[in-house]
Amino acid sequence: MSSHDVRDMLDLPGTAGPRPAKKQKIAAPKSTLKGLAREVQSLAGDNPISIVPEISSFKKRRLASRKPAARWVLKPFKNPARGDDLVLAHWRRKAEAPPAPVGEDGNSEQVEAQPEPEIENSTFAKFNVKVDIPEYTDLQYSLKLEGEGWTKDETDYLMGLVKDFDLRWPLIWDRYDYEPLASGENGDSLVSVTQPRSMEDLKVRYYFIADQMLQLHTPLKDMRKTEHDLHEIFEKFDPNQEALRKKFAETALNRTKEEAREEESLLLELKRILARSEKLSEERKELYARLEAPPSNGNIGIYTSSQGLQQLLQQLMTLNNSKKRRSLMGAENMSPASGPSGLQQQGSFDRRDSTMRESISGPSGPSRKGTLQGPPERRELTKEEEKMYGVSQPTEKLSGPSFRADRLNKPITNKSATMQAKITNVLGELGVPSRLIMPTAAVGQEWESLLGNIQKLLELKKNAEKLDGEIAIAMTLKAEREKRERAARGEPDPEDDDHDVKRESDREKSVSRSVRGGSVSRSARGGSTRKRSASVLSAMSDKSTKRQKK
Amino acid sequence: MAAQPMTSSMQPTDVYGGDEVSAIILDPGYSSVRAGFAGEDTPKSFVNSHYGVSSSGGSYVFGDDTIHNPLANLDIRNPMSKEGVVEDWDAATKLWEYAITSRLTSFKQADPRTNGLNDDMKDADIEMEGVEEGEKPLEEHPLLMTETAWNNPKLREKSIEVAMESWGCPAFWLARNSVLASFGAGKATALVVDVGASTTSVICIHDGLILKKSVQKSPLAGNWLSSQLRSLFSTTDPKVELVPHFMIASKTPVDAGASAQATYRKFEDTPSASFRALEEERVLTEFKESVVQVWQDHRGLKAGTEYARQQPGRVFEMPDGSNQLWGVERYNVAEGMWDSSSALPVPNESAPSKGQTIPEMVKASLAGVDIDIRAHVLQNIVVTGGGTLVSGFTDRLHNELTAMYPGARIKIQAAGLTAERRFGSWIGGSILGSLGTFHQMWISKKEYEEFGTSIIEKRCK
Lengths: 550, 461
Ligand SMILES: Nc1ncnc2c1ncn2[C@@H]1O[C@H](COP(=O)(O)OP(=O)(O)OP(=O)(O)O)[C@@H](O)[C@H]1O
Ligand SMILES: [Mg+2]
Description:
The complex is a heterodimer of chains A (550) and B (461). Helix content of chain A is 56%, strand content 3%. Chain A has 550 residues and is mostly helical. Chain B has 461 residues and is α+β, with helices and mostly antiparallel strands. Chain B is built from 16 helices and 19 strands. Chain B has a six-stranded mixed β-sheet with strand order 3-2-1-7-8-19, sandwiched between helices. In chain B, strands 9, 10, 11, 12, 17 and 18 form a six-stranded mixed β-sheet that branches. Magnesium ion binds at residues 29, 177, 194, 196, 385 of chain B. Chain A: It comes from Hyphodiscus hymeniophilus. Chain A: This is SWR1-complex protein 4. Chain A: Its main location: nucleus.
């Protein structure tokens, strides 16, 4: 806030007038006071510091360094590119004059311009280049150059235009306005009509002539590379294709708005697709790089001798031991990096069973592990991507080498033969093959849970049978006892009673079953005559059909 | 700062290929004559093409200083025809001579030894070689003159005759003004849209030469716009009186729409009708500059009248003090250039045809050139001429062309400076005339003497 503003607020008139002038004063020294520290300058606030800045020495210096003005002369010159000797004149700095900075406006006075006896040549003459146009004699024309629909006169006219317009075809075609000689004057007035010639017509004619003349000068076999190339260009010119191309270009130019927009959107789409496929291939490449193990560098030579094999065995044993110990210690202090990433520099393994062999290494392996650590940066795959590519990073450790397929079949194979038969029975009943067709990770999981369920089912079944048996024994014991009691009482043995008991036991059985089957029991009790399958799965389906029925 | 050798001490040829030979560029048009030295950025001499003839003595007066005097029996004429080509050679020669000598050669700018500016210098021994006062005005200067693309061969021959015989030029060249306009925009291949006073033209240029089949011209230019304004003024209610400045002795401010309160000057002999027309034209040009606008949408004003009505109007005060707000009408007057059916009817004149509108002319012009250069030319559209200064002109042109050729890339080159737009062809001539490579093009006096006037047809294509 300046003092002026304060005055303004207090409504004091006073020095309202000189304000702009003051402002200017402030601006001027501020920019020129160079040697002053900023702090010192700011002390003064809005008031200008009363140091008179050094006056700019612009004028003085200019006067001081005044040298004689540069001398310029009006120099005549010729241009050898011209046919005549037109002499034009331009201003040039006088040659002897010392280089002087002032007087560049060319108005300096001239002293004793020596009459130059010799007129210099323009430096621009060299830019006058002309296209070489083939020329022919009358004889050459009649021998070689006759063309259908062309008189010599018109050909001459064309060649003249080509020369005049330096082979610029749009111009040649534009200015092409041939008027045939008055008929009768010339014998061959066959082509009297002046049908408009297309640019292609003109080109064909010219190329034909140029080609013929080229061959006349240098026979085909003697042609040098450049000449031959030229000849080929002349030969290959196809007027129809040119016309077609132009037609196409014209339709392209005259597209409607909708077509243009459609094309634009199509192009955009294409771009998007290309970008996407690029991205995908990039990702795929990355994935391959991730999955591909680096080539083996461990030497297996040492294991070929029996001594070496012994050593290997020992190594495996110790590893096994240490692993057991480790697993006892718990998984949490095993760094995940020591797993798959650690083995990656070891390499040489098939990636499938890499987990099994992770710790096998050559004798130099463990020591090298440290130095070779630092695997190339790999992008972390997200959960979805892992799922998409079917990548998994198993963390559970298995002891010793084994087949993965074994792992799948283990739940079956490690059971007793009867048990195995039962499981396969259940599987057969479910329509699941006992050997998986496509054992992906997800399928494997399902498979395992299915097998677990089957096992549970079989166990329950066993229990149920055991209970049934016990109940039956208890029943017979009871019947026996009653029989004995009745016999003791001297009652006769009722046949049907026995029957009843049997039926009773049947019902008991179903009841006991219903305990397991849950709601199914009700349906069984409800008089449904359906034969129930023992499988949980069918019970489940029953349940669902029941629900639907309800 | 140490004095360094100036770059000007070097040959300018290294930089831009220039090599000036004090050539004079003369660009005559219907509304004005532009003349100046090659290598400069604006013409030094800018003279109104209208000249005065006193009906008694028959002597001519030229230039804005004299023709605007409200003298009795001063007849105002124009040497150019309605097509922008020379009609009255006698007057045209005098007019151009005036344009050149009044500002350029009689000033002796080219020769510092005699112009008196350096008299105080001590060096007295001046070489007086070659400066004898010739009676012909252009003996030391090659002359580069412009012409329209539709100039006929007779008139072209007449130009070289005037230059060589009457003015004694050592060298001469005749260039198409559209070609020069494209040079002025830095292009050798272009589509030039030139809206002058008398004619509007659309021409394709290929490699510095016009394509004759592409030449399109129409009278819908500055003068036609003036006639539209006149008919607008006469049809508005109440009628707007067009009273030029020289008639007004004094005026008092009035409210918008109120009738004028001015005292008019009394003349014993009222100035001629042609003089009044000239003065009215000045008012109209002012109106064009400040009020008239081109409706920008390519669908035309008819489709957007409602929207146009909502646009802010502009106030224009006539010389007599009456003023008024011009709303949608200010779009109306220029609309005929784009949509012939929107043109206001002008008494005694036939309505413009569809083919005379600018979009149609562009279309027709493009149809006359090879397909291969159409796309190229659409990317190099040069807009020049005073008529294109109507605000909104280039936007409309761009919108029209993008609607017409949606598949092509449209690029319009329009000089931002008013002077560059008006003097486009002169500037191109200034560039061409100062090029070192142009020396070999000139038709020299010797060649003229050898071949006669027909050389112009052979050389200037
Ligand atoms: N700012 C402006 N707005 C609108 N029109 C203008 C403006 N300035 C000039 N004009 C008009 O432009 C015309 C003059 O343009 P220009 O100088 O290009 O014509 P010219 O070259 O003399 O004529 P021609 O090319 O027809 O021989 C006049 O009709 C004038 O009214
Ligand atoms: Mg013009």
